[in-house]
Design brief:
The complex is a heterodimer of chains A (114) and B (110). Chain A has 114 residues and is an all-beta fold. Chain A has no helices and 11 strands. Chain A is globular and about 35 Å long. The chains are: A mainly beta (114), B mainly beta (110).
């Protein structure tokens, strides 16, 4: 069964460092997303990506964050100058066509900023 | 007011019980509705979409009331494996953004 894969599963980084979280969405999907979940809190939308550009972003997704689809398969989230409060589980998701179709989530990258 | 609101629980029920979860959403323009399930420290997984006419999938029944902006999930004959957090999810913008409720935790006990 096709799945969304994320690497690494766990990343520890020092405050102020840059991190890149990687995702391989399901191959025929058109919409890609990043969400985050701080421990014990709800899943929060960060950004959606369609047709090689950002289609929506939340207020959380400020200038510290950027996304890229550098080739036909990878979808990355870059966090510049990480802060302690960026520590969270980051989930990548993809969706074949948006609307009321299912979004498939990757297993997540646990980011710990120390 | 929170965009998607759920009772956090936990709901502690014995095996075989019927349990119902409720959810309210604030954006009347919301277009699509879902229940996702999340196991501890795992990713959310779709349990079922919620349609205006109500829909059933085995032991699970979902209802939507657009006028009241209210969504429900009913689980019949609870199993131990149903223990998880159930997330009410609303799609506000043609597939470009899912808004999650805080989740309702269910614990099914022998």
């Amino acid at each position: 069964e096709p799945e969304v894969t994320q690497t690494p599963s766990h990343q520890v980084t020092q405050m102020g460092q840059e991190v890149i979280l990687r995702c391989v969405p399901i191959s025929n999907h058109l919409y890609f997303y990043w969400y985050r979940q701080i421990l014990g809190q709800k899943v929060e939308f960060l950004v959606s990506f369609y047709n090689n550009e950002i289609s929506e972003k939340s207020e959380i997704f400020d200038d510290q964050f950027s996304v890229e689809r550098p080739d036909g398969s990878n979808f990355t989230l870059k966090i510049r100058s990480t802060k302690l409060e960026d520590s969270a589980m980051y989930f990548c998701a993809s969706n074949p066509q948006g609307g009321d179709t299912e979004a498939f989530f990757g297993q997540g990258t646990r980011l710990t900023v120390v | 007011r929170k965009e998607v609101e759920q009772d956090p629980g936990p709901f502690n029920v014995p095996e075989g019980a019927t349990v119902a979860f409720n959810c309210t959403y604030s954006n009347s323009a919301s277009q699509s509705f879902f229940w996702y399930r999340q196991d501890c420290r795992k990713e959310p997984k779709l349990l079922m979409s919620v349609y205006s006419s109500g829909n059933e999938d085995g032991r699970f029944t979902a209802q939507l009331n657009r006028a009241s902006q209210y969504i429900s999930l009913l689980i019949r004959d609870s199993k131990l494996s149903d223990s998880a957090t159930y997330l009410c999810v609303v799609n506000n913008n043609a597939g470009n953004m899912l808004t999650f409720g805080g989740g309702t935790r269910l614990m099914v006990k022998p």
